[in-house]
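Quiz preparation item.
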């Protein structure tokens, strides 16, 4: 597995690996974690994103956010074919259906693997900040994974804060969740 590590950071609290889907969702999530005493380590592992140019654009915008907060970013190399294999048979599911649930599981398993590899005992995902995603469904896919923190980043005005911060930082805001199936819908 090829990993790119960007930025170094100073430990300020207990580390938490944060699966980041994009820069805008990371903004409010990071601010909340820092305010609660966590030391976020950002993990960009999103094999579901299509096409690869979109993956790169989202990563570049996450780097803008990481720079603002002086945080480390780990970028897992893009492997869309593994994700396609993972969701095989669910291609015709509607958005928010079984394919999305399976996708949440895939990303949480990837985050768990990286947290274990780095020796970080806690991890979470920024996916819960979106008003388009059901946090309880996301939690159901991670609750059996040791160290998974069920943090609903929509709470405490998370979504509105992420929109405001994304605008302030002039971040790219995508118009679809990420996979080729969500483009169609």
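Solution:
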């Amino acid at each position: 597995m090829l990993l790119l590590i960007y930025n170094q950071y100073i430990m300020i609290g207990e580390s938490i690996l944060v699966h980041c889907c994009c820069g805008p969702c990371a903004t409010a999530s990071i601010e909340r974690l820092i305010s609660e005493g966590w030391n976020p380590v950002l993990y960009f592992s999103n094999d579901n994103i299509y096409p690869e140019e979109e993956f790169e654009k989202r990563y570049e915008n996450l780097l803008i956010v990481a720079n603002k907060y002086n945080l480390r970013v780990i970028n897992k190399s893009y492997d869309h074919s593994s994700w396609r294999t993972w969701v095989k048979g669910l291609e015709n599911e509607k958005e928010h259906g079984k394919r999305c649930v399976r996708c949440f599981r895939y990303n949480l398993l990837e985050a768990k693997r990286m947290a274990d590899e780095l020796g970080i005992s806690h991890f979470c995902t920024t996916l819960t900040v979106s008003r388009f995603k059901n946090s309880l469904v996301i939690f159901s896919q991670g609750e059996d994974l040791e160290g998974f923190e069920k943090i609903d980043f929509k709470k405490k005005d998370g979504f509105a804060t992420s929109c405001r911060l994304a605008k302030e930082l002039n971040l790219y805001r995508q118009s679809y969740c990420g996979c080729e199936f969500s483009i169609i819908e």
